[in-house]
Design the sequence.
């Protein structure tokens, strides 16, 4: 069934997660060094590598060198809008989608994300913004999506969920009966000013080792950017009108 409603993630789809991560790490480093001047960069980076093995991309939990992780995270939230780096073409792509489909935002983001979406002109174009920090449910809990769909009166079978992670986006979407698309965004982000070059290099190394999306793509569409979604939806509609061999749609 061709989707007519779209639930879109924020981090990794509309703007990059990486600048927030790097600014947060820089803050933790400065605070940790103040507490222990003998702390070396090598030791700090090893702690970061250990930490990221079990860490959720896009939402860094404040548990690195406690309580410094918490302190740094609070400071990042105060700077949130200034750290936003939109993924090229993503905001325009959402605008075009909103002209043809009903669109909402469903994301694990702090409340400050609302101001960022407002500054980008996104909040005004969507039917609803559902953030875990405001709703009370966080992905991968499907109740965050259920809450948004119930508020809007949307049917799961008519809804496509667009995110950047199979575990946080694809899995709950499919469990509810939605379809799903995963965005594999490019690495076009830049480090915020003032972040130590060794932290940036260590972070980039971590990023090459980790993947947001497991290999299995048999149950979702994979696209390079949000702007590719209309081509996927058009192809799905064409297949429904003119049945043919089933195939994966990749842009």
Sequence:
């Amino acid at each position: 069934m061709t989707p007519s409603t779209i639930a879109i993630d924020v981090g990794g789809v509309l703007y990059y997660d990486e600048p927030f991560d790097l600014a947060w790490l820089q803050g933790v480093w400065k605070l940790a060094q103040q507490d222990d001047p003998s702390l070396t960069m090598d030791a700090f980076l090893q702690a970061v590598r250990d930490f990221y093995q079990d860490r959720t991309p896009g939402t860094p939990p404040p548990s690195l060198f406690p309580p410094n992780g918490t302190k740094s995270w609070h400071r990042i939230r105060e700077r949130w809008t200034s750290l936003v780096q939109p993924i090229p073409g993503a905001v325009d792509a959402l605008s075009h989608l909103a002209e043809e489909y009903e669109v909402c935002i469903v994301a694990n983001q702090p409340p400050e994300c609302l101001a960022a979406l407002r500054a980008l002109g996104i909040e005004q174009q969507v039917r609803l913004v559902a953030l875990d920090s405001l709703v009370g449910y966080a992905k991968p809990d499907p109740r965050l999506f259920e809450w948004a769909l119930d508020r809007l009166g949307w049917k799961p079978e008519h809804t496509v969920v667009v995110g950047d992670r199979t575990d946080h986006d694809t899995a709950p979407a499919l469990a509810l009966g939605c379809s799903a698309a995963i965005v594999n965004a490019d690495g076009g982000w830049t480090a915020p000013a003032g972040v130590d070059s060794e932290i940036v290099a260590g972070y980039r190394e971590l990023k090459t080792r980790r993947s947001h999306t497991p290999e299995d793509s048999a149950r979702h569409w994979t696209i390079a950017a949000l702007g590719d979604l209309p081509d996927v939806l058009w192809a799905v509609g064409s297949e429904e009108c003119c049945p043919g061999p089933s195939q994966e749609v990749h842009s």
Notes: The CA atoms of residues 7 and 161 lie 5 Å apart. The chain has a mean pLDDT of 89.
